[in-house]
Amino acid sequence: QPVALWGGRFASGPAEAMAALSASTHFDWRLAPYDIAGSRAHARVLHRAGLLTGDELDAMLAALGTLADDVASGAFTPTIADEDVHTALERGLLERAGAELGGKLRAGRSRNDQVATLFRMWLRDAARRVVAGTLDVVDALVAQADRYPDAVLPGRTHLQHAQPVLLAHHLLAHAQSLLRDVGRLRDWDVRAAESPYGSGALAGSSLGLDPEAVAEELGFTTSVENSIDGTASRDFAAEFAFAVAMLSVNLSRIAEEVIIWNTAEFGYVTLDDAWATGSSIMPQKKNPDVAELTRGKSGRLIGNLTGLLATLKAQPLAYNRDLQEDKEPVFDSVEQLELLFPAIAGMLGTLTFHTERLAELAPAGFTLATDIAEWLVRQGVPFRSAHEAAGECVRVAEGRAAGLDELTDDELAKIHPALTPSVREVLTVEGSVSSRDARGGTAPARVAEQRDRLVARLAEH
Ligand code: ARG
């Protein structure tokens, strides 16, 4: 016999298609443990308000304990007649505590304040798992930076050779953005840590219940200031969806580079067999599918964010049933990330970098031209003319298919009188890299400091 939570004023039950449209247990059942935790806290405040005797509280908590066990073991599951997780668990409670006692728990709460609270609880736990998964990826990047502390590669802008940089510097750049994603989730948690429980349907409770006590028991910092806002707002979900979409975009940018680096034309890396796939027709293929799925799934996470924002944008206060659409996009984003994290960390951690190839390409494309200009500045030449002169060096070298370091003394002197042979001191990749030694630069000593600070921050998590 289905137990609707609102039978009284209805002469008939819902039409089948109405029930099918309404049902949400296929995705909100994961809130069940949080729902039961909320019920425990709610039973205690009902008791403190004199609405449950001590014996009734004990019996209620015992029934909720059995229900929690049966949910965990799978002995109790929702049926198609249960509208949502809250309805199903009310049925489970009535079965265990009896209709008389079980029917008392619903006083002073609504599914509106319940779901707003439970969704926050689920997301706060999910945020911790997402942080842990992100830190595994950061660990893999740091491990690779440590494995190749001296390797250089051509740093790029516009995908064109720009200036030589340390491979470790490049890898740590990705680690820095991932750590900001972690920081965003932690900042988010401060705002998500307010409990709407006790807001009722929208207006608050008349029964002398203590929302602060419920908030504390459920691990929140405080209860919401405003019951209307507590039940109607979902910016906590949208902000979370943004934080994880941004994270997925940052992972996608790493993935894109791995895909490029893995081409024959670049030849920077080899993928470990465990983290690559083959082709059903082309026997030679070894494809970077982990990276491609990472790039692909970022589109899905962006869609989850924009879909959620569109769901929210025209809803008047307070609760509207549209809000039932708030959960699946965010659940999906978390699910996709949990699939990705171990694969990305595995793929990145097992990449082999071809350091000879990287070193050969590092000075190619005249990446040391800026070093000539800056060397001239140190000789007192204004940067404007120094830039001109260095550009002319490139033109002359390019004209006879030579490197900048192969320009003759005469050629140099003809381009600019200040260009003496000692300019060649900076015309090596090592010289160029170690000259960029201000904080944040690519000089080995600076990169080592950056790495140590980053690892110290990791240890705080
Ligand atoms: N299942 C709903 C949700 O996820 C909560 C139920 C509120 N329903 C209602 N008729 N007020 O938002």
From TrEMBL:
Molecular-function annotations in GO: argininosuccinate lyase activity
Pathway: Amino-acid biosynthesis; L-arginine biosynthesis; L-arginine from L-ornithine and carbamoyl phosphate: step 3/3
EC class of the enzyme, as a word: lyase
Residue span, Fumarate lyase N-terminal domain: 15-303
Superkingdom as given in the UniProt entry: Bacteria
Catalytic activity: 2-(N(omega)-L-arginino)succinate = fumarate + L-arginine
Enzyme Commission code: 4.3.2.1
Domain Argininosuccinate lyase C-terminal: 366-433
InterPro entries: Arg_succ_lyase_C, Argininosuccinate_lyase, Fumarase/histidase_N, Fumarate_lyase_CS, Fumarate_lyase_fam, Fumarate_lyase_N, L-Aspartase-like
One of the GO biological process terms: L-arginine biosynthetic process via ornithine
Keywords, alphabetical: Amino-acid biosynthesis, Arginine biosynthesis, Cytoplasm, Lyase
Keyword Lipoprotein appears in the UniProt entry: no
Localization (cell): Cytoplasm
GO CC, one annotated term: cytosol
Family label: Belongs to the lyase 1 family. Argininosuccinate lyase subfamily.
Name used for this protein in its record: Argininosuccinate lyase
